[in-house]
Amino acid sequence: MFTIGCHLSVSKGYEHMGKEAVSIGANTFQFFSRNPRGGKIKKLDTKDITNFNEFASNNNIEVILAHAPYTINAASKSEKVRTFANIAMKEDLERLNYLPNNLYNFHPGSHVKQGVKLGTNFIIETLNDVITEDQKTTILLETMAGKGTEIGKSFEELNNIIENVDNNEKLGVCLDTCHIYDAGYDIVNDLDGVIDTFDSVIGLKRLYAIHLNDSKFGYKSHKDRHAKIGEGKIGIEALVSVINHPKFKSLPFYLETPNDIEGYKDEIELLKTHYI
Predict the structure, then answer these.
(1) What is the C-alpha separation between 14 and 55, in angstroms, rounded?
(2) Which of 2, 109, 161, 219 has its CA 20 to 30 A from that of 145?
């Protein structure tokens, strides 16, 4: 089954997102766990969650992806910023326990010129504190483009985090096609080689989701600017190879392209015509 969706707004609730996803031909979706540029979280509506869980069960929505806000930076040199990351992630994970079979994606963080090693240690400390043995959610580290002082621009940097977290069975990776191409992984000309590298460094068992985005600036640009499917430097042919690769076929794909809801509908239809 081709599991494909896009980024939707949680402001009207989970059931509304489920219905909106189905209306555009999607069978999964991604949403921000709270205000993406702030810290506020919407009041928990258990009735909405109950309604969504029933709707999802009846409409083949088997997995959804929550995205942590951009304001989370577990690698920050600021103790205040790291404390917010810790509190926000704990709150998000507690809430996500109401939603079965879900994923929680976050950007590992930026070390802000204090160095990758120290920034990585802070990320590990946060994850060791927020992860619980009984949590239902799998936390995903997102592959990054290498903009500024981002941590996670290489598979080795992500694996270093994973290997040093105590309950790392709760950890996985979300691979962003734009980010890894911008970081220097050539998925256009050597997709198999990139997949083999990921498998040898991290292991494909850790790969839980893919952000399917074209890239505005392209290979080794380290820019992190998404483009619509087929309108960027990666191109439709390479992205079709991604969705049809036998080692990715069981994964959910999430569009984060610069689109409105109708644009997402068109891209989902386009990709479905190329899915084998």
Answers:
(1) 10
(2) 2
